[in-house]
Amino acid sequence: MVKKYGFGKETETDAVSEKIEESSKSELEIEATTDAEGTHFTMELTDETAVYGLGEQMRGINKRGWIYTSRNMDDPSLTESRESLYGSHNFILITTKERNLGIFIDATGRVTYDIGYTKYDELRITVSGGFDLYTIEERTALEVVREFRRIIGKSYVPPKWALGYGQSRWGYKTEADVREIVSGFEKNKLPLSMIYLDIDYMDRYKDFTIDKNRFPDFEGLVRELKAKGIRLIPIIDAAIKVEEGYEVYDEGVKNNRFCKDKEGKEFIVGVWPGDSVLPDVLNKETREWFGEKYKILLDKGIEGFWNDMNEPSLFYSKQNFVKCINEIAEKKGKDLQAEDFNHINYLLSQLANNEEDFKSFYHNADGKTISHDKVHNVYGYLLTRAAAEYFEKYNPNKKYLLFSRSSSIGMHRYGGIWMGDNASWWVHMLSEFKMLPSLNMCGFLYVGADVGGFDGNTTEDLLLRWFALNIFIPLMRNHSVPQSRRQEPYMFGKTEVFRNFLNIRYKLIPYIYEELERCAESNEMLFKPLAFEYPDDERAKETEDQLIFGKEVMLSPVFEQNASGRYVYLPEKMKLIKMKSCEEFTVTELEQGDHYIKIPLDTFAFFVKENGYSKIMNYIQK
Ligand code: GLC
Questions:
Q1: Gap from CA of 481 to ligand 1 centroid (Å)
Q2: Active-site entry in 237, 266, 311, 515
Q3: Spacing, Cα 7 to ligand 1 middle (Å)
Q4: Which residues of 401-427 are buried (b: 16+ CB within 10 A; e: fewer)?
Q5: Deepest of 5, 23, 384, 425, by most Cβ within 10 A of its Cβ?
Q6: How far is residue 95's CA from residue 50's CA, in Å, rounded to a whole number?
Q7: How many angstroms does the Cα of residue 81 sit away from the middle of ligand 1?
Q8: What would the pLDDT profile of 302-314 be if each residue is shown by its tens digit?
Q9: Nearest CA to 281 among 273, 293, 272?
Q10: Alpha carbon of 294 to those of 214, 392, 422: distances in Å?
């Protein structure tokens, strides 16, 4: 049963698409108090209680024992000490044997979930600003999720080709670079469905422009690649370069499309293009205007985009930068004491994504002036929604690929997400895996992390394991920074193994897509924790490095360097399929219980439930 309680929402988010009447607060069974910090909800946690959800976050699938914050943030140090990442996904599920309770906080500002961090046996949620609270109580965890997903509306499903393999790298700068990648894949007989273009395709990082020197015949290239079944997917950033004569900037200034400071002037921030301004997407007309800009690239044959820097990410604000530089300039020629040096370091460290800056600019949310910090968490969602709503107008009969870095619940209807700037670390494979069910609970089905790791140098074994991990993950994109070692799958020795893994992926695409569509249609999770599928099995509850995919598959990837296998817990009798290629595989039946499974580097292994075996085999042998 779903109940809604109003706490004076800042602005409409449309996160919930179902119309639900408000209940009287006297019916709310959770203890609520209010103080200067915000509204607090407190609940007792027994030893047995598990807490799930919160979408994109570090740490476990069961969220107990840490403090999490919803504050969309561009910070590439994805470590265990982080409390928030790029998205805010305010849905949690509190489960015990007796009770399955879902809580959704439909808020636009900061929310904190202290899940047994301050006090081991207490959950304390703090919401700053206004919001709507939803409680959802059902018989099982899966039913709570289904009910929640029903009220937030159908999840985005990309076109089928978007389940193919995508090659990306910040550093493919020219038409020749792109052709070289295509030829690398062709020569090595590796399937490829997408090549991603990072910011270098633009004219000096200006959205919706193309650098004519680097891409003299952009449309020709799009056509040429499409004929080979490869789509070119450009990036779009949130901020617009300040430059008179640049159409997007001029139009935006003329029609008040950008966020303003308290004096009503455009608020200037620094991002890739230097001085930039932020489209005020809290405003419906601005969303329509910004969305329509995608036409420039759609008209050139583009069928998909990745939206970035939309937390929004600020390297600095002009006002703060000037202040900081002036203060540092005062020290010029002086004998710097350690305190002065530390202070300069501190000033510089405070430039990016500063909360004071978020308080210093304003939106016109369809008539109501709101400071950015109060609506910060829906910015990326609304920017992506602007694009998706325009695609619908541009061609209502076509599916476009769209995913974003920043998000909040509501955006799940318009696009997918990638998990941001991870690193070539083994632990980041595991983070990707653990975020899958949490994101699915919040409606995001088309998701994935940068395969191979974005930052740092990958290794061949890490990349192979990462390919194997992503065989069942809808978004499979290899992406990296320019300074890192190249990580295209033909850059190493074991090209044949990469080829085999990709061929297995391509054989399974019809199955994965069918499951994805089914889960979107029926509000189900594509990746389920074992605890949800086997609620009475104590061991299942503690197993977080295995997941159930769809109806019949269980995944148990290898996450450890130099491991040639791993322990797997089988909650029921299953078949183990070990594949070297689509032609060369073995099938073994295993009983419920613990097993050590050998999984060499050249092998992809997964499990199927008894009833799913012939179905899966049909796809593989087609
Ligand atoms: C951000 C994105 C990354 C991209 C880079 C340059 O860091 O997260 O994927 O490559 O910006 O555009």
A1: 8
A2: 311
A3: 37
A4: bbbbbbbbbbbbbbbbbbbbbbbbbbe
A5: 384
A6: 5
A7: 22
A8: 999 999 999 999 9
A9: 293
A10: 20, 12, 28
Nearest Cα neighbor of 590 from 606, 570, 605 is: 570
Q: Say yes or no: CB of residue 308 within 6 Å of ligand 1.
A: yes
Backbone angles phi, psi at 599, to 5 degrees: -135, 85
CA distance 227 to 26: 63
Residue among 73, 170, 205 whose CB has most ligand 1 atoms within 8 A, to mutate: 170
Residue 421 catalytic? yes
Structure tokens at 80: 């265990």
Residue closest to 407 by CA, chosen among 89, 15, 14: 89
**Matching residue, tokens 């047995």:** 48
Marked catalytic residue, from 74, 106, 132, 421: 421
Rounded CA separation 210/191 (Å): 27
pLDDT at site 622: 84
Evaluate: CB of 417 within 6 angstroms of ligand 1: no
Contact 421 CB / ligand 1 (< 6 Å): yes
Place of tokens 């889960």: 519
148 lines ligand 1 (CB under 6 A): no
Q: Do residues 403 and 418 make contact, with C-beta atoms less than 8 angstroms apart?
A: yes
What element of type H or E holds 596? strand 593-598
Amino acid in position 319:
Q
Q: At what angle do helices 284-293 and 247-254 cross, to 10 degrees?
A: 160
170 lines ligand 1 (CB under 6 A): yes
Contacts of 621 (CB under 8 A, 6+ apart): 582
- 420 close to ligand 1 (CB < 6 Angstrom): yes
Query: Among 421, 428, 479, 480, which is best to mutate for testing ligand 1, by the most ligand atoms less than 8 A from CB?
Result: 421
Question: Which of 309, 313, 407 to mutate for ligand 1's pocket (most ligand atoms within 8 Å of CB)?
Answer: 309
- Give 42-100 pLDDT, tens digit per residue: 999 999 999 999 999 999 999 999 999 999 999 999 999 999 999 999 999 999 999 99
Q: What is the pLDDT of residues 160-196, one digit of tens each?
A: 999 999 999 999 999 999 999 999 999 999 999 999 9
Q: How many helices (H) and strands (E) does the chain have?
A: 17, 35
Alpha-helix runs per DSSP H in 330-425: 338-349, 355-359, 372-375, 379-394
Give 463-501 pLDDT, tens digit per residue.
999 999 999 999 999 999 999 999 999 999 999 999 999
Torsion of CA 510, 514, 516, 517, to 10 degrees: 130
**For 238-349, where are the E strands, in sequence order?**
240-241, 269-271, 274-277, 304-308, 316-317
Distances 353 to 72, 324, 481 between C-alpha atoms, Å: 10, 14, 21
